[in-house]
Predict the 3D structure of the following.
Amino acid sequence: MEGVTIVEHPLIQAKLTRLRDRRTDRLQFRQILEELTALMVYEITRDFPTRPVEVETPLERTTGVELARPVVLVPILRAGIVMTDGVLNLIPTARVGHIGLYRDPNTLKPVTYYLKLPDIVTEALVIVVDPMLATGGSAAEAVRLVKESGAGDVRFLCLVAAPEGVRAFRRVHPDVPIYTAALDRELNDHGYILPGLGDAGDRLFGT
Ligand code: PRP
Ligand code: URA
């Protein structure tokens, strides 16, 4: 699918399999989700621009690189919050915005309850994160809010996506690439991804 990168690294796929497993308990689920996110960060940052920077080694002066643009990470609450540390472990200077959204269980439409973004969102590389892209409604709304705040360079990082959701998202945001560990088969009648991993928020927080 155009605009979708499925990251098929063996470590990522092995960890994803453990997330899918119903026997994986809350503690393990949280830990694996964070680890998996950190691994996905390599792929999403692959083409981030760098600029040269001088550094003094114990032996001599040399030229290295640093990221040329600030990074803003935007987790979608609740489940996205657990992905935050996975990204910050690798990009510790990233600023973090938050978007609170939940999916109405009857209409499956996103309902926004919180929004706080750093000012620098206009000049930054923005990564919106949520483990699940099901109907695509939450992701599309989160990205709309980020763009409304001035962001011009946005990427969406999830772990499991449904084809229906990817199509819906790309119709609204054709400029925003999606990075996922898996593109699953389909949605069920309640908007859950099959085979999926169940309700990410509930599995993370024990609700
Ligand atoms: C889940 C998930 C996404 C959304 C995906 O959150 O974390 O945000 O559903 O579904 P969609 O693509 O159909 O919009 P949920 O709405 O269950 O809220 P929660 O994180 O508070 O549990
Ligand atoms: N949200 C989830 O947490 N899981 C799904 O399968 C769909 C939406």
User: Anything to note?
Assistant: The domain at 4-48+66-205 is CATH 3.40.50.2020 (Rossmann fold). The chain is about 30% helix and 30% strand. The chain has a mean pLDDT of 96. Helices lie at 10-20, 26-44, 84-88, 137-148, 163-172, 200-205.
